[in-house]
Design brief:
CATH topology of the largest domain: Rossmann fold
CATH architecture of the largest domain: 3-Layer(aba) Sandwich
Distance between the termini: 46 Å
Number of domains: 2
Largest sheet: 4 strands, parallel
Number of helices: 11
Strand content: 15-25%
Helix content: 40-55%
Structural class: alpha/beta
Order of helices and strands: HEHEHEHEHHEHEHEHHEH
Shape: elongated
Length: about 280
């Protein structure tokens, strides 16, 4: 109950499909207010009157607890959107806000349809994206280096520097075939680029991370081990930095970046475009 008492703002993301768009836009807008007393609730697949009635009851229940309520909506149905807007709580209807000026600019009316944003859409594009994800999983963490010729981008970095989640995000969001290679102690002690990476140096990028951040991540995985010691973290990062400079490998700092920021930065550095 202590958690309940610290929450003053209830945020709901209501959608007739996945809710990904509503959540992404809503969270992005709310970051401008530096509030840490929020609770976020995703309410996807609200595509019938019955489901909408249940959602409205849920939102009113939160409001009755004397909490501020904000609803971000991407409902395609005009009837459902209007019904939600008519309720006694604040609703930011993202479609109603954005579509009218867009229609004006394009000199045409929209054709609302449920699920077009995050549906399968064009099957060939969907299959291409799934192919990128499968490729990235198959070459994760230095596996199947013989397939590096098919990679769009290869990430290198010390263990736990963020290689795998960044590569998976690149594959899932951009359709990029992203491989990653872990720079282990043996590689770092040699002071030269591993042989398997030399043929693909033009698509190689290094991840760098500060020692304190790396130590915290490793400590949560293997507490009080040599692997997680600050001395080991400093040593590996120093050796990796030297290797990147020596081989003129472009780097991205991962310590203070989200996976989304890392992926977008790498796309820009590599000159890659979304593949679907």
């Amino acid at each position: 109950m202590e958690l309940e008492s610290t929450i003053s703002l209830e945020v709901f993301f209501v959608s007739d499909r996945t809710g990904i768009t509503a959540e992404a836009l809503g969270r992005s807008l709310l970051t401008q207010f530096n509030k840490d007393d929020c609770r976020y609730t995703m309410l996807p697949y609200i595509d019938t009157e019955e489901k909408l009635s249940t959602v409205i009851q849920k939102i009113h229940a939160a409001k009755s607890d004397n909490r501020q309520v904000i609803v971000f909506s991407t409902l395609a149905s005009k009837e459902h959107r209007q019904r939600l807007i008519n309720e006694d709580f604040f609703v930011l209807d993202l479609f109603a806000t954005c579509l009218p000026p867009l229609q004006s600019a394009m000199h045409r009316h929209s054709s609302p349809a449920i699920g077009q944003t995050h549906g399968m859409g064009d099957q060939n594009q969907y299959l291409a994206r799934m192919d990128a994800v499968n490729f990235t999983l198959n070459v994760d963490d230095g596996l199947r280096t013989k397939d590096y010729e098919h990679a769009d981008l290869i990430l290198a970095g010390v263990s736990r520097s963020g290689k795998t989640p960044t590569c998976l995000y690149l594959a899932m969001q951009f359709g990029i075939r992203a491989a990653n290679y872990p720079l282990v102690e043996e590689d770092l002690d040699k002071g030269q680029l591993p042989e398997v990476l030399k043929p693909w140096k033009e698509k190689l990028y290094g991840l760098v991370i500060d020692p304190d951040s790396l130590q915290k991540i490793r400590q949560s995985r293997m507490p009080d081990s040599r692997y997680a010691s600050i001395e080991q973290c400093r040593k590996e990062i120093r050796q990796a930095d030297t290797l990147y400079r020596q081989e003129k490998i472009p780097v991205v700092e991962s310590s203070s970046m989200s996976v989304e920021e890392l992926a977008t930065t790498l796309m820009q550095k590599a000159g890659l475009q979304r593949q679907y």
